[in-house]
Amino acid sequence: MKQPMITGLFLSLLCLYGCGFEERRKQLDEREQALNLREQAVMLKEKEIRLMEDSVRKYAAKMDSASRMIAEPGIPLPDSLAGSWNVTMVCTQTNCTGSAVGDIRKENWLLGGSGTVVSIRAMQGNKLIRIYTGTFTSNGLKLSTPEAETSRSAALMQVELKVDQLNKMSGQRLITQSDGCETIFKVDMERSKNQ
């Protein structure tokens, strides 16, 4: 009789211990899952921070190059270059989605100057689509989109032009998107006939 009683007591204790053990194991598994989820969240946040740091570094480099370009000493824009110009731009190189080599853009650019600062108002029909500012030097025009227009999500645009003849200029426009992709356009300008 002692034997079945001891066996019953042992089985009861084993059952109680086993139930408690199972509960503790379940709690440990839940803690481990929660810890894994937190670890994954931290890794994602670290990756996000690295991407943001890279983006900030690229943006700072772009702004630094734009400010160096504009900081170049300029001379006043000659009256012979001021006024309306018909502009044809042909894409010659790109690694951006949505752009293709051979794409053509046509705009009308209104050149003007104030002191040594040159500005271009890019128009499509009667609509102002962009403003460039920069300098005129003995080598030609160097312009970019102003800092106010260049937000984190906007593209940085740089234009370099040389005077070919009295009524013709040529050069290139470099567009650098916020994600780092670039598109280069060959720019040909001809004085508007209605001037």
Shape: rod-shaped
Gap from first CA to last CA: 121 Å
- The share of residues in extended strands comes to 35-45%
Provide mean pLDDT, rounded: 81
Assign a percent range to the helix content.
Answer: 25-40%
Spans of 5+ residues with little confidence (pLDDT < 50)? none
Main beta-sheet annotation:
8 strands, antiparallel, barrel
Layout of SSEs?
Blueprint: H1 2-71, E1 83-94, E2 104-114, E3 117-124, E4 127-137, E5 140-144, E6 156-165, E7 168-176, E8 182-191
Antiparallel strand pairs: 1-2, 1-8, 2-3, 3-4, 4-5, 5-6, 6-7, 7-8
What would you say this structure looks like, in words?
The chain has 195 residues and is of the alpha+beta class. The chain has one helix at residues 2-71; strands at residues 83-94, 104-114, 117-124, 127-137, 140-144, 156-165, 168-176, 182-191. β4 and β5 form a beta hairpin. The protein starts with a helix and ends with a strand. The model has no long low-confidence stretch (mean pLDDT 81).
